[in-house]
Amino acid sequence: YQKELEIELILAHVNHKQRIESDWEEKELRKLAAEAELPIYVSNFSGEFSEARARNFRYDFFQEVMKKTGATALVTAHHADDQVETILMRLIRGTRLRYLSGIKEKQVVGEIEIIRPFLHFQKKDFPPIFHFEDTSNKKNHYFRNRIRNSYLPDLEKENPRFRDAILSIGNEILDYDLAIAELSKNIDVENLEQLLSYSES
Fold first, then answer.
1. If I label 149, which of 56, 72, 159, 193 is the partner at 20 to 30 A Cα–Cα?
2. What SS3 state is found at 131?
3. How far is Cα 86 from Cα 100, in angstroms, rounded to an integer?
4. Are strands 11-15 and 40-44 parallel, antiparallel or unpaired?
């Protein structure tokens, strides 16, 4: 859709060097980029590994690539199943209501605009195309993996449409959050008479 959307694409990949397959995946991605005639930028993670450090490393690298190339948006492949897992993780850990709206479809982080066009699609909705499967996803060492492999399948035994229910709650909270922001825009919190005319809520 590059021509229809009048956009140019570039690829950016971080090889986290944590799995046997990492180098092979990088090589395959370079091949795919060459076939599609797209530029690709690759960086290797170094230092002591943790999920948070890896995330920070990724986004720092993406920002660097975007500055270098003049790219205006970062597009990621997060989908509806990621959204369900994120909302459930936050619910279990305990969070404020507004954060149960989950991952945003568009978001500005630092100087990067992130766009997630697949958030409305579950993994089962995608055509059966080749994709890299992280073998560590099968292990329940990480909280997200326990959500994916254990908690969600058990909850779906109680309600086969549990994923849809979680997504629906997330969307409803997002709507409420936006509505409250719009409706409270004209409240002058420094005007005590106006402020105290509202209920405590």
1. 56
2. coil
3. 8
4. parallel
